[in-house]
Write a structure and sequence with these properties.
Elements: E1 5-9, E2 12-18, E3 24-34, H1 37-50, H2 60-68, E4 74-82, E5 85-95, H3 106-119, H4 130-149, H5 151-163, H6 185-198, E6 201-207, H7 211-221, E7 245-250, E8 256-263, H8 273-285, H9 290-298, E9 302-310, E10 315-322, H10 327-342, H11 348-365, H12 369-382, H13 388-397, H14 400-409, E11 411-419
Parallel strand pairs: 2-6, 7-11
Antiparallel strand pairs: 1-2, 3-5, 3-6, 4-5, 8-10, 8-11, 9-10
């Protein structure tokens, strides 16, 4: 696949990926800001309020009818957390008229709907409509509380919060429920205007399109007054070793959760990043990985056992579903797998399967237009953009010695246990 072609004006970057792989055109508009306690909740609320209605499409029903008229175009608004950055995201997908028996300019019409939603919201006296804000605050409380209903997600959230306590990374993607009481139509509209004026805006267009036409459409459409883009606060990636901490939460659960937070001390722009990804593949992200084979299959201690990395923060975390009575044994075996990798106990099958799996993952990553945009934005936020071809080449150059070096740098920090309310004080 070709790489993105980029043009920038007034803090707005337009990235175009011309390709005939898709019969739809995708437009992704992102506004990126620092993740902060005082702004997390209103920022997270914004895309949902904006999707409530605009000047031209005053209700969600009218908006959906307009999308249906464009051969079933789809528009969504959401909030993402990327390391210590908060990203407001709008994605429009519309059929490309080149593949239909119509001369209707579907791309231009879809862009008109998208820009109306983002730039011309329903307001009254310099504020968002009170009823729309109230309705979305009520819905947002449900979104926040829904995390507790999914115990796997809840345990992961709590583990990472404890690991990064006192750092912006610990702030939830949706913000905190208690902050919602401070929001009204005026305060939310002020936050909205601040983002439009100062947040870096990255617009992705993927499809069978002409880049020059896309640049013209985008810069004409998003022609707004902009102030100098705010500088982001640096992200703390490197962490010194400290005494291992154990945190226990008790809830009404039938299955315990054992999660472990670690520091990799490797940041995404580093030349060591591909080796970190390979390390994680061998350690816990695949069915052939050490955690799955030893914790789940060999010893039957876990319903699931996997590991993931967040390269935008240098975090590695293990997630497992374990009976409370097996917590200590499972923890011991998980630690043994990390120690084995530090000693270089990596067999040829583990290594070769991981490399081939990663190569396949990255080759298929381009099968999704939004996935390609997301990967590019991650690179921009981290400070180094790599193409999937560059990552594949890098994986194929990683050696076992590289993986061992990464393993020796991993610092186990926080052990989090989610267990039932009854039983002994300690598992």
């Amino acid at each position: 696949m070709k790489t993105f072609q980029t043009r920038e004006e007034r803090g707005i970057s337009v990235h175009v990926l011309p390709t005939q792989m898709f019969k739809k055109s995708s437009i992704v508009v992102t506004l990126t800001t620092d993740l902060q306690e005082e702004t997390a909740a209103p920022t997270a609320l914004l895309p949902y309020v904006l999707m409530r209605g605009s000047e031209q499409y005053s209700t969600p029903e009218k908006l959906q009818m307009a999308l249906d008229d464009l051969y079933g175009a789809a528009l969504s608004g959401t909030i993402d957390k990327k390391g210590e950055r908060h990203v407001v995201d709008f994605t429009m997908q519309v059929p490309n008229e080149k593949y239909l028996s119509t001369d209707e300019p579907l791309f231009e019409k879809a862009l008109g709907i998208l820009s109306d939603v983002i730039m011309k919201p329903l307001t009254e006296n310099g504020a968002f409509l009170a009823e729309n804000v109230k309705a979305e605050i009520d819905q947002h409380k449900k979104r926040i509380n829904a995390v507790l209903d999914d115990k796997m997600s809840y345990a992961n959230l709590r583990c990472l919060q404890e690991l990064t306590k006192g750092e912006p990374y610990s702030i939830p993607r949706l913000g905190r429920e208690e902050e919602l009481a401070k929001i009204d139509g005026k305060t939310l509209y002020d936050r909205y205007q601040q983002l439009l004026k100062t947040a870096p805006i990255h617009i992705y267009v993927i499809g069978d399109v002409d880049p020059e036409q896309v640049y013209q459409h985008m810069f004409e459409t998003f022609n707004m007054e902009r102030e100098p883009v705010t500088e982001f606060r640096p992200v703390q990636i490197l962490h010194e070793a400290r005494t291992e901490r154990q945190v226990v939460d008790r809830l009404d659960v039938n299955q315990g959760k054992l999660n472990i937070g670690m520091w990799t001390n490797v940041e995404m722009p580093s030349d060591d990043y591909p080796a970190l990804v390979v390390f994680n593949g061998i350690f816990g992200s695949y069915p052939h990985s050490k955690l799955f084979v030893n914790v789940r299959e060999k010893h039957s201690l876990a319903y699931y056992a996997t590991s993931r990395i967040d390269p935008l923060k240098g975090v590695l975390y293990v997630m497992s579903g374990v009976e409370v009575s097996h917590f200590e044994k499972a923890l011991t075996i998980i630690k043994e797998q990390l120690d084995a990798m530090r000693r270089g106990e990596i067999n040829d099958e583990e290594f070769s399967f991981t490399i081939s799996s990663l190569v396949n993952d990255y080759r298929t990553a381009g099968d999704s237009a939004t996935g390609a945009a997301d990967m590019h934005l991650n690179g921009l936020i981290a400070g180094r953009v790599r193409t999937r071809e560059e990552m594949i080449e890098a994986f194929q150059k990683v050696t076992v010695d590289d993986v061992v070096r990464i393993a020796k740098g991993v610092v186990l920090d926080t052990v989090y246990m989610l267990r039932d309310k009854g039983g002994e004080a300690h598992a």
